[in-house]
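Is this the right way to post structure tokens for a design question? Let me know if I should format differently. Anyway, here goes:
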């Protein structure tokens, strides 16, 4: 079957933002205005559990009023197919944003008009930078008291470092917000009402000054400055085309179609970030946002294909997005639900049909494509084939996990993987009854397979099953989903912190391994230097043997021993990070030496050297932002100091005060309970992992005692 729609009419976009900026509300309005649904359900109407928005369909999402799992929906706008992924804003579920951005061609970044750039917005922006995803900024909630378009734009430019191109200016704010001035089209849009089916009037820019008068001086100033703002926008955009820019300077005229082409070119290359505004909840600006998605965000392949890599992750080529190339797809998400195991894939090239066999290049296994479905959040529509640029789900694939590459078996290729964060918190998990032991193990395996930011281990000393994740809410939701989706009841133990260990200073150490008990013995001697390195450099091994003091065939065993032994340090058995192990000398015996003997010698050398280095314990430090009423500022800052934290910034966002700082994760368990009582339920906080830091020597014993309880 031939392609039904040209690739240039596809848009694969994500909606990303900080929690509560309005992503899900915006997605609901998009689906309504594109005719995909005929009723709007608002997020705050779902907490009674009776209704759900299209993309927040899980019980856990309805109960909490937040997005937990990214959801895919497809719709049409002006002849274009728009595939949308609504992503979570909570830091505990950053993994969902990470893997969505990996496979999307563009993103709409939603901002709260009052709060502006928030911590999770920065995290998501950095992820989008990492994957080179073109973006549009949509400043939402312009109808809220305290909304400030200028504050948001300043944050986008200064905190995100973006070259913001103002394409729209709000007409009014708070309860006077009536629409926006479109600097590209040269007109203003004034809505008749807040109703979802309300029409808007299109007014030339030069008439807006006489038509509109607002109570707030700043809102009137925006309208007074419209000619200047339009001129700045034209100069910035048309600077991407020399002839058009020259024409603008000489005659003051421009070609409207060429202007849009320039904005599109700048957006696709990342040189420009168009800024729009509106109020999704009050049904203003969503249609214009859709127009911008079609006009400015790239179609699949327009900003390049996906990198092909070798087994070590080195880029060896690029797969262009084309139907005529061999079939290649990237699995970016695996979920288990009522349809069975669904493997979400982005098709980068070729055509894949029902019944085809694909090679899982990552795992070296064959997978048969039984059924292909197009997902609409929690419902699915069966389709017969998918082509380059499509996002779909394959049903019941057995061995494919998140990040795996699927290819035509005759033309295998590894596609660039995603990078996942390390978990920072762990809990013990126990089945509620003895009968649930096997069921719990199976359920946990399914949850971990679906979410790469979860890790499962068995504590060798206690025999406990340990689940690691990105935060308390992340782990709590995982256990809750096991109950609702897989029918397995489990109890969660007290959260524990994932500490790390490090060498205190450079140590040179020699260890000789000798064993003689009749027959052939064992002999190996290694002389090694262990030196701490900068944070984030990981474990490095350097072979500096000269003159054959240690035969070449034993070097891999020595390197392997260093890597294995670094998994368990000498302070409390935590992973040892950021050091360089240099093998500088050694001795061997023609008969008694072996790879095993050198491995044993290296492991003992490592253990003794770490102890001699006066090792350090490292703890995860979280970046914290608390938003509350100004009256409670002193209490919140005092509490941060009591928790061994430091305050880096404080100020006001609209009518609220905020505090930003860094606090050890070990001191943050149950923080929500303090905040609720201290602020009478009015305070909110967000927290994300920032870096590891030395634990003060006086605190080591106290923390370790707390961890073992």
């Amino acid at each position: 079957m031939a392609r039904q729609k040209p690739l240039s009419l596809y848009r694969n976009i994500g909606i990303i933002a900080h929690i509560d900026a309005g992503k899900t509300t915006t997605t609901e309005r998009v689906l309504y205005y594109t005719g995909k649904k005929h009723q709007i359900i608002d997020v705050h109407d779902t907490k009674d559990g009776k209704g759900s928005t299209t993309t927040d369909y899980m019980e856990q999402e309805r109960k909490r009023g937040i997005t937990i799992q990214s959801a895919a929906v497809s719709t049409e706008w002006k002849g274009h197919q728009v595939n949308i992924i609504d992503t979570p804003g909570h830091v505990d579920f950053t993994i969902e944003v990470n893997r969505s951005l990996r496979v999307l061609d563009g993103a709409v970044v939603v901002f709260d008009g009052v709060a502006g750039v928030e911590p999770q917005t920065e995290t998501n922006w950095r992820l989008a930078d990492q994957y080179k995803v073109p973006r549009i900024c949509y400043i939402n909630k312009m109808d809220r008291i305290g909304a400030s378009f200028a504050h948001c734009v300043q944050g986008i430019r200064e905190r995100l470092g973006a070259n913001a191109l103002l394409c729209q200016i709000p007409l009014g704010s708070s309860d006077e917000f009536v629409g926006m001035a479109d600097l590209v089209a040269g007109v203003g849009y004034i809505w008749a009402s807040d109703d979802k089916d309300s029409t808007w009037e299109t007014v030339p820019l030069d008439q807006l000054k006489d038509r509109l008068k607002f109570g707030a001086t700043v809102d009137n100033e925006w309208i007074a400055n419209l000619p200047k703002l339009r001129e700045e926008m034209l100069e910035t955009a048309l600077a991407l085309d020399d002839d058009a820019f020259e024409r603008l300077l000489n005659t003051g005229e421009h070609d409207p179609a060429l202007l849009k082409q320039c904005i599109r070119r700048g957006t696709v290359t990342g040189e420009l970030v168009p800024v729009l505004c509106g109020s999704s909840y009050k049904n203003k600006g969503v249609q214009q946002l859709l127009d911008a998605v079609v006009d400015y965000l790239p179609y699949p392949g327009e900003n390049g294909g996906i990198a092909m890599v070798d087994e070590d992750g080195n880029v060896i080529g690029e797969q262009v997005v084309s139907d005529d190339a061999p079939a290649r797809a990237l699995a970016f998400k695996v979920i288990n639900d009522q349809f069975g195991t669904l493997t979400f894939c982005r098709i980068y090239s070729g055509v894949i049909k029902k019944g085809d066999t694909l090679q899982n290049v990552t795992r070296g296994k064959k997978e048969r494509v039984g059924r292909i479905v197009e997902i609409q959040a929690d419902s699915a529509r069966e389709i017969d084939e998918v082509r380059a640029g499509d996002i779909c789900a394959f049903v019941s694939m057995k061995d494919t996990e998140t990040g795996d590459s699927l290819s035509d078996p005759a033309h295998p290729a590894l596609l660039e993987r995603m990078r996942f964060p390390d978990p920072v918190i762990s809990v013990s998990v126990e089945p509620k009854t003895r009968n649930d032991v096997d069921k719990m193990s199976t359920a946990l395996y399914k949850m971990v397979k679906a979410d790469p930011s979860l890790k499962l281990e068995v504590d060798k000393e206690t025999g406990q099953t340990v689940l690691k994740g990105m935060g308390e809410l992340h782990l709590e939701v995982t256990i809750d989903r096991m109950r609702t989706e897989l029918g397995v009841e489990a109890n969660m133990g007290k959260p524990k912190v994932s500490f790390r260990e490090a060498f205190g200073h450079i140590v040179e150490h020699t260890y000789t391994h000798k064993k003689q008990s009749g027959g052939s013995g064992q002999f190996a001697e290694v002389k090694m230097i262990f030196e701490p390195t900068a944070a984030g450099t990981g474990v490095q091994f350097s072979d500096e043997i000269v003159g054959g003091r240690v035969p070449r065939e034993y070097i891999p065993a020595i390197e392997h021993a260093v890597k294995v032994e670094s998994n368990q340090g000498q302070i409390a058995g935590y992973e040892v990070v950021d050091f360089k192990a240099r093998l500088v000398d050694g001795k061997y015996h023609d008969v008694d030496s072996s790879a095993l003997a050198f491995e044993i010698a290296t492991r003992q050398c490592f253990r003794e050297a770490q102890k001699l280095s006066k090792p350090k314990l490292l703890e995860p430090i979280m970046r914290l932002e608390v938003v509350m009423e100004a009256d409670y500022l002193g209490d919140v800052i005092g509490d941060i100091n009591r928790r061994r934290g430091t305050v880096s910034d404080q100020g006001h966002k609209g009518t609220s005060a905020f505090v930003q700082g860094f606090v050890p994760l070990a001191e943050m368990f149950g923080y929500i309970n303090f905040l609720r009582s201290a602020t009478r339920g009015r305070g909110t906080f967000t927290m994300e992992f920032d870096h590891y830091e030395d634990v003060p020597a006086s605190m080591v014993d106290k923390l370790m005692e707390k961890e073992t309880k």
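Format looks fine. Someone answered above. Worth noting: The first strand starts at residue 10 and ends at 17. The two ends are 63 Å apart (CA to CA).
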